[in-house]
Design goal:
about 220 residues; alpha+beta; Immunoglobulin-like; 2 domains; 14 strands; elongated; membrane
């Protein structure tokens, strides 16, 4: 494989599907090489999720059991209840699969969720920027030229090739867009009093109903 062609022609696109808090991140990579040239190489995308977005490890484990998605999350312990201002970045290594509609193309989807943000003054939307991912390739059983690939510090196995870590290389690529913006609904500060009063009344009403039922049918 002419590695120079791969480095120059690789194109990355990413988009968010659905609306609201629960979305799907769709990644597509065109390496500019045929599937025969790539042989049994594994392609992956390393993307960094900012504090405003997270992945649910339990949902991801379920998808991996059914072979819908293969990914590694760093760190693997994710607090799904933490708000945006108490969360930290996540790094996801997302294994990609060949796209049958395009030779040399790979695709992957990742379910992502928006975290709760602090209430805003007058804008009911928070903007979270997703930068273009890093594209990685490993060819444990192929003798490919890597003269224009940079060795990566990723320690992960080539999916389905070996259970031992393999040498990954970072592929130069040109993203169609440097950043992808996710819009997350947030509350407004002027609604704080109304929300607190409504929540308190609902709590008192429900607690009273439970207490009344317990006293009436407690025996």
């Amino acid at each position: 494989l002419g590695a120079q062609a791969v480095c120059q022609d690789a194109v990355v696109t990413q988009q968010l599907l659905q609306e609201g808090f629960h979305r799907e991140l769709l990644l597509q990579v065109e390496l500019g090489a045929t599937r025969e040239d790539l042989g049994r190489c594994t392609v992956a995308a390393r993307t960094r999720l900012p504090p405003g977005i997270y992945v649910d490890p339990y949902e991801l484990a379920s998808l991996q059991r059914h072979n819908f998605t293969k990914a590694l999350v760093i760190p693997d312990a994710v607090d799904v209840e933490a708000p945006e201002y108490l969360a930290s970045d996540l790094v996801v290594l997302l294994y990609m699969t060949p796209d049958p509609r395009c030779s040399g193309c790979f695709t992957a989807t990742l379910p992502v969720h928006g975290r709760y943000h602090r209430p805003a003054e007058n804008n009911g939307t928070a903007l979270v920027a997703l930068k273009s991912p890093e594209i990685l390739i490993c060819c444990c059983d192929n003798h490919l030229s890597t003269e224009c690939w940079k060795p990566s510090d990723v320690e992960a196995a080539c999916l389905g090739r070996s259970s031992h870590p393999c040498q990954w290389y970072s592929v130069k690529h040109k993203p169609v867009s440097e950043e992808l913006i996710m819009q997350i609904p947030v509350g407004l500060r002027q609604h704080r009093f109304l929300v607190c009063v409504t929540t308190l009344l609902a709590t008192v009403l429900c607690s009273s109903m439970i207490l009344a039922a317990a006293c009436r049918y407690g025996h």
